């Protein structure tokens, strides 16, 4: 294809037609960077004296060569924004630019050659220098290059699709976010530099070519190849450009404007997401007030992709995570697929139509798209409870590296990945807080203003604040400076912990804030305060009653009396946590243990549980309150608090509690679970089941069964038989196999174990029964089967040994003691097996298992006695081992909690079905 054909004419027409100048979409000016001595965050940023308007790209990939390469040419219409003699854009060491081809076309048709072309490999700059100053105006730059791929699946790369074992299919595609478009073509590779694209791809006739836009023309060349040219794109950033060559087929909706492409053998597994995509699109169009701007929205599914998905405008790239086989995949996988698809479609507005000008504001794309996708899913699939699950998950407080805020300025390209660590979770929690702070109506109006005012442009955070402020000011509400309130939430690391104390005579409440992640940081936030009291248990109004603007504030709440409790942060809408004085905690706990507990909003019930267990982990005095609080769970049948409670069980299983082996603790937990398990059931009710009930069941059943729930003990052997005979749904097996196997084999007799050992030998990867051996209630059976691990005839692996000893370490005290004795006596044989399998490093894993799971000082002492022997020191650095594991011993802490439980049991035995 002759790239100069008709180019000059179209160039002149474009200029005469007055195509929009990109400079109008830049919300700020970047410093001109012509000197490598410039340091700091702007050094790797492009100069701002030029900007692209239209790329005409022609890409010729050699897809079936041994080494993947591609040829490219471009005619780039760009604008000189301020007089300069140099044009600087991005390139990569993967591109070899043909400098003889480079030329500049002036608006009068004059063609000019540069006097020099320089590549800065560190900054990935390609600078074209001319012998005179280029005046402000439009020009055309012609370039030619050859490219190769790197090994990280970024840029333009080729993979092999092995879906059909009888046919090797090559797939070539792109992944440019954040800085990899320069690996495919020279460009202004920063998101603020938006331009339009005319893209053409050369390919074999049996390949399908895809890009952001629908096909415009196809031309058969003399060599039998096809040039596919796509319609011109809207103004968009380089990272959103995509092109694909593959032997794929598609599955479309009824209207034909939505399609998913992928390997034909797998497309039928996309049925669920194909059905939901039109609903998501309609809901997003309604919410944003803007119709989807492109002619169609396609997706393409890859079996190898460097991320879960990528929101390319008009052609979303997906990993196989969106495929759903109801016969094999649990419904939680389907729900995750819906969430992923909704997120990428939300990006078509948040990120594509309106784009952060630089990556430090990536939260504008990722956090807003995530929250908008949750709102959308709650509308189209309400039984998924997407927002509620996000809130109860609690990871917003713990996700990503500590001491990193949501928004910050990186000093080098290598730091860019860290910018993506906070927006997906912490950023979403902040957006949800903002919505409730200004009201849903104001937030919705502000989002529509933000999109409408900035469509096809690039933005900074202040553009969002301005749009929201405009909507807020239109309503008669107390004055609020949104920027002043919100910037610290984005720019400071950590989150607030509020300490609440009360004067029960005067009613005065005092609130103090600290940074929960770093007490000494000095970080402060303007915190929206909402509250409910016993006298006014209204949790529905989430617009703030007050703002905490300093370290401390005091006020007397409306409608509170001296006998009331007070609960802050209604529905967990604020991104902060709360600790109360002792008396208020006691009143909350007492109220939860009454028939009125449901007057406290379910999201607050869940949060109270999470907060109190964290406090007890740090301070033993909270053990009494902890037991009082969780005692209320005997009444609770809503799945949300139980999802939080499951996290409490995990904490109880680890240091500093480590209680899960205690018979008293197990019976105590089972007594609390009884109503919930009866309500949720032991089996799911199909794809239409409420997602929260399904989630709670999946989380609770392993604990209930481990602790000896009679229903589990009854059904597990039957379910195990159904698994072995192929009568059980595979999707149910995937989510429930562990508790079924463990429960059935814990109580199994010798005949069942003989059968299961034979099953394991035939298919160890499918059944792997040795991971349950150490849980058996019959120590005689353990003594019979454990030696099988060390006989050559069985051919078992090092992982089988690890699995068996892991279960012994986590099993009963007798099983732990036997396992440790066996390990000590047979350590030489075990080392030989590991060395033979090239798994010598696993020996430290074994000792670590028993160090982690020591339940008594006696067990720890026995292990340490062996650690001090020469035999141990020949394997592992004993001092380093002790240093690694000694701090994990939690005997005193676990004893204190058990003491609190035993004392409380006397008080609560009337409510418990079984005397503990």
TrEMBL record:
Coiled coil, from the record: none
Ranges of residues in domain Peptidase M1 membrane alanine aminopeptidase: 275-489
Swiss-Prot/TrEMBL GO biological process terms: peptide catabolic process; proteolysis
GO terms assigned for molecular function: metalloaminopeptidase activity; peptide binding; zinc ion binding
Family annotation (SUPFAM superfamilies): Leukotriene A4 hydrolase N-terminal domain, Metalloproteases ('zincins'), catalytic domain
Key word Phosphoprotein present: no
Catalytic residues identified in the record: 344
Residue positions binding Zn(2+): 343, 347, 366
Subcellular location: Cell membrane
Signal peptide start and end residues: 1-24
Marked site: Transition state stabilizer: 424
Cofactor (UniProt): Zn(2+)
Pfam families: ERAP1_C, Peptidase_M1, Peptidase_M1_N
Major subcellular site: membrane
Topology of this chain in the membrane: Lipid-anchor; GPI-anchor
Residue span, ERAP1-like C-terminal domain: 565-870
One GO cellular component term noted in the UniProt record for this chain: side of membrane
Highest rank taxon of the organism: Eukaryota
Occurrences of domain Aminopeptidase N-like N-terminal (ranges): 52-240
EC number: 3.4.11.-
Family: Belongs to the peptidase M1 family.
Protein name: Aminopeptidase
Name of the coding gene: LOC105267285
């Amino acid at each position: 294809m002759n790239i100069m054909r008709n180019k000059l004419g179209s160039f002149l027409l474009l200029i005469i037609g007055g195509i929009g100048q990109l400079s109008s979409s830049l919300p700020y000016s970047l410093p001109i960077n012509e000197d490598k001595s410039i340091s700091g965050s702007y050094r790797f940023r492009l100069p701002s004296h030029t900007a692209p308007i239209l790329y005409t790209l022609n890409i010729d990939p050699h897809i079936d060569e041994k080494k993947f390469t591609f040829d490219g040419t471009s005619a780039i219409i760009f604008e000189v924004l301020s007089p300069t003699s140099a044009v600087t854009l991005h390139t990569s060491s993967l591109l070899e630019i043909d400098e003889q081809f480079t030329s500049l076309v002036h608006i009068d048709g004059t063609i000019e050659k540069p006097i020099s072309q320089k590549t800065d490999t560190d900054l990935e700059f390609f600078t074209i220098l001319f012998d005179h100053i280029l005046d402000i105006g439009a020009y055309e730059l012609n370039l030619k290059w050859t490219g190769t791929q790197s090994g990280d699946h970024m840029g333009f790369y080729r993979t092999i699709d092995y879906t059909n074992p009888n046919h090797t299919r090559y797939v070539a595609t792109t992944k440019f976010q954040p800085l990899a478009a320069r690996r495919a073509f020279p460009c202004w590779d920063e998101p603020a530099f938006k331009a339009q694209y005319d893209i053409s791809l050369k390919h074999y006739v049996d390949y399908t070519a895809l890009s952001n836009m629908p096909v415009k023309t196809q031309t058969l060349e003399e060599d039998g190849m096809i040039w596919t040219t796509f319609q011109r794109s809207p103004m968009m950033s380089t990272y959103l450009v995509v092109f694909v060559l593959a032997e794929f087929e598609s599955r479309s909706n009824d209207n034909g404007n939505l399609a998913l492409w992928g390997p034909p053998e797998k497309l039928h597994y996309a049925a669920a997401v194909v059905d939901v995509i039109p609903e998501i699109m309609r809901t997003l169009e309604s919410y944003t007030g803007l119709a989807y701007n492109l002619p169609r929205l396609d997706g393409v599914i890859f079996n190898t992709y460097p991320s879960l998905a990528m929101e390319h405008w008009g052609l979303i790239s997906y990993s196989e995570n969106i495929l759903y086989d109801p016969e094999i995949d649990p419904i939680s996988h389907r729900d995750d697929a819906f969430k992923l698809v909704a997120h990428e479609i939300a990006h078509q507005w948040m990120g594509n139509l309106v784009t952060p000008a630089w990556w430090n504001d990536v939260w504008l794309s990722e956090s807003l798209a995530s929250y908008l996708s949750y709102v959308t899913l709650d509308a189209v699939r309400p039984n998924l409870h997407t927002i509620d699950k996000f809130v109860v998950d609690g990871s917003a407080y713990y996700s990503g590296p500590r001491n990193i805020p949501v928004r910050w300025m990186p000093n080098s390209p290598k730091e860019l990945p860290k910018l993506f660590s906070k927006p997906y979770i912490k950023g979403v929690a902040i957006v949800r807080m903002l919505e409730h702070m200004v009201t849903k109506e104001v937030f919705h109006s502000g989002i529509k203003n933000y999109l409408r005012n900035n469509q096809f442009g690039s933005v900074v955070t202040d553009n969002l604040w301005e749009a929201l402020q405009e909507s807020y000011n239109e309503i008669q509400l107390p004055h609020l400076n949104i920027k002043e309130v919100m910037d610290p939430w984005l720019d400071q690391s950590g989150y607030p912990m509020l300490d609440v104390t009360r004067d029960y005579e005067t009613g005065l409440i005092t609130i103090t804030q600290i940074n929960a992640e770093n007490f000494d940081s000095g970080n402060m936030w303007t915190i929206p305060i909402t509250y409910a009291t016993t006298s006014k248990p209204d949790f529905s109004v989430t617009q703030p009653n007050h703002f905490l603007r300093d370290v401390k504030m005091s006020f007397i709440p409306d409608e509170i009396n001296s006998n009331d409790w007070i609960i802050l942060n209604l529905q967990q809408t604020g991104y902060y946590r709360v600790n109360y004085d002792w008396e208020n905690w006691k009143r909350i706990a007492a109220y939860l243990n009454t028939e009125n507990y449901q007057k406290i909003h379910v999201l607050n019930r869940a949060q109270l549980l999470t907060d109190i267990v964290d406090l007890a982990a740090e301070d033993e005095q909270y053990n009494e309150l902890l037991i009082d609080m969780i005692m209320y769970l005997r009444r609770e049948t809503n799945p949300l608090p139980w999802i939080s409670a499951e996290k409490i069980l995990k904490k109880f299983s680890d240091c500093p509690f480590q209680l899960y082996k205690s018979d008293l603790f197990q019976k105590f937990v089972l007594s609390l679970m009884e109503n919930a398990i009866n309500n949720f059931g032991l089996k799911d009710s199909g794809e239409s089941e409420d997602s929260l009930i399904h989630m709670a069941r999946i989380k609770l059943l392993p604990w209930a069964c481990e602790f000896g729930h009679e229903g589990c003990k009854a059904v597990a052997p039957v379910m195990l038989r159904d698994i072995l005979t192929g009568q059980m749904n595979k999707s149910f097996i995937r989510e429930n196999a562990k508790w079924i196997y463990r429960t059935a084999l814990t109580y199994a007799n010798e005949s069942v174990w003989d059968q299961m050992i034979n099953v394991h030998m035939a298919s160890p990867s499918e059944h792997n029964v040795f991971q349950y051996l150490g849980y058996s209630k019959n120590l005689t059976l353990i003594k019979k089967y454990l030696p099988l691990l060390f006989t050559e005839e069985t051919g078992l692996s090092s992982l089988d040994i690890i699995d068996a000893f892991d279960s012994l370490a986590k099993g009963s005290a007798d099983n732990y003691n036997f396992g440790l004795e066996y390990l000590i006596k047979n350590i030489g044989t075990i080392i030989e097996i590991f060395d033979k399998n090239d798994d010598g490093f696993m020996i430290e894993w074994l000792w670590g298992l028993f160090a982690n799971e020591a339940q008594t000082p006696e067990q720890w002492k026995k292990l340490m006695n062996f650690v001090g022997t020469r035999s141990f020191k020949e394997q592992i650095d004993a001092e380093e081992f002790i240093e690694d594991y000694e701090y994990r011993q939690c005997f005193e802490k676990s004893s204190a909690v058990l003491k609190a439980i035993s004392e409380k049991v006397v008080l609560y035995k009337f409510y418990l079905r079984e005397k503990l």
